[in-house]
Amino acid sequence: MRRGAEGERARRGDADAALVSRIRLLALWDGCMYGLVMSMAGMPPGAVPLFAAESPRPGAPYESPQAPRSNTLTHLTGEPPMTPLIDRPTGDLPVPAIKYRRVRRAVLEATAAPALVVLLLIVWQFSVPLFGISTFVLPTPLDVLKRTVTDYALLWTHTQVTLLEVVFGFGAAIVTGIPIALAIFYSRLFEKAVYPVLVGLQTIPKAALAPLLVLYLGYGWAPKVFLAFLISFFPIVISTVVGLQALDKGMINLARSMGASEWQTFFKIRLPAALPNIFGGLKVGISLAVIGAVIGEYVAAEKGLGYLQLQANSQFDTTLNFATVVMISMIGIVLYVLLGIVERRVVYQKESAV
User: Fold this and answer.
1) Does residue 122 fall inside a structural domain?
2) pLDDT tens digit string along 254-292?
3) Do 211 and 83 fall within a single domain?
4) Does residue 11 sit within a domain?
5) Whole-Å CA distances, 52 to 49, 55, 74
6) I want to staple 86 with a disulfide (CB 3.0 to 4.6 A). Which of 35, 128, 254, 271 is the partner?
7) Are 244 and 185 in contact (CB under 8 A)?
8) Same domain, 39 and 167
9) CB under 8 A, 24+ apart: contacts of 91-96
10) Do 86 and 166 have their domain in common?
11) Under a CB-based contact definition with an 8 Å cutoff, are residues 228 and 168 in contact?
12) Interatomic CA distance for residues 171 and 149, integer angstroms
């Protein structure tokens, strides 16, 4: 009997030992999986994930999810719970891959155009001597740069004249174009009467009007400013009308049903929705205004970059001609960039207000 009882206890002891071994293996596996999951989730080892938090039993005291919980394996194995084998260093987390891609894409987009310009200038610089082209016909970029620095005072004097003509003409186009666009949008009769006339004026080449403007307005600033105004007026009107018409009528009906007045509907809904189109027309208009001012200076002027370019052509000074073209381009680029900065600020503030 005693031997039978001892044998039974021995078998039970072996079974308990086997059970403890299995539990230890399960605990080791659980610790490995826990550490792997937590490291992939980017959480510290001691944190309790939301999916692992147990719901409190009825009548049980509340226990914080971050508080350490008793491990049932401790009572069976007599050992503390296993710590994760895969640990993550503390401190600032590395930049996520998606953020890195966004930063890289933003850098590439910002540097793509300058890199292309630099590449074209390098090709231009080495192609002139490589193909034996005379610098009298095609000067190198370095020659143009040297001439720009040498004659900077002369170029800047004429640049100021052209810049003022562009600014005044473009400003006049804004002041008159946007109100006319509003009248076209709100009055169908005005649209039927004025819109065909605007389209007809736009089809006329502005260079053909330049001699007539000089005849009627003289040799001063007036013909150049008016030509810059005339060539940039139509894009501003069209873009404003399109922006006002692009708004969903459901939003207008909703605002009216809530008691909004016509002024509130315009300034709170119509204008913010039309701003991207309006600024698109302004960007096109500012580029065309530069062209209009220079065309007016070609016909009749005593100052300005167009006048200086004609003087360079008459003297067969190709390098000065290219330097003048560079200054004309710089006027358009600077004004376009400034308008883009204003667009980002105004459109962002309007969208935030809405």
Assistant:
1) no
2) 888 888 888 888 888 888 889 999 999 999 999 999 999
3) no
4) yes
5) 5, 10, 19
6) 35
7) yes
8) no
9) 93/42
10) no
11) yes
12) 31
21, 148: one domain = no
Print the domain residue range for 348: 134-353
Same domain, 86 and 159: no
218: left (phi over 0), alpha (psi -120 to 50) or beta: left
Does 121 reside within a domain?
Answer: no
Separation between Cα atoms, residue 354 and residue 350, nearest integer Å: 6
Instruction: Convert the pLDDT of each residue in 72-121 to its tens digit.
Output: 444 444 555 555 444 444 444 455 777 778 888 888 888 888 899 999 99
Regarding whether 296 and 159 lie in a shared domain, the answer is yes
* % the chain with pLDDT above 90: 46
pLDDT at 62 over 60: no
Number of domains making up the chain? 2
Cβ atoms within 10 Å, residue 289: 31
CA atoms within 13 A on the CB side of 120: 6
84 lies in the same domain as 147? no
User: What tokens were used for 231?
Assistant: 């060539």
pLDDT at 39: 55
Domain boundary among 90, 121, 151: 90
Q: Is-contact 215 276, C-beta < 8 A?
A: no
Instruction: Return the C-alpha torsion angle 229, 235, 236, 240, nearest 10.
Output: 160
Domain containing residue 325: CATH number: 1.10.3720.10
Residue 112 lies in a domain: no
Pair (81, 172) in one structural domain:
no
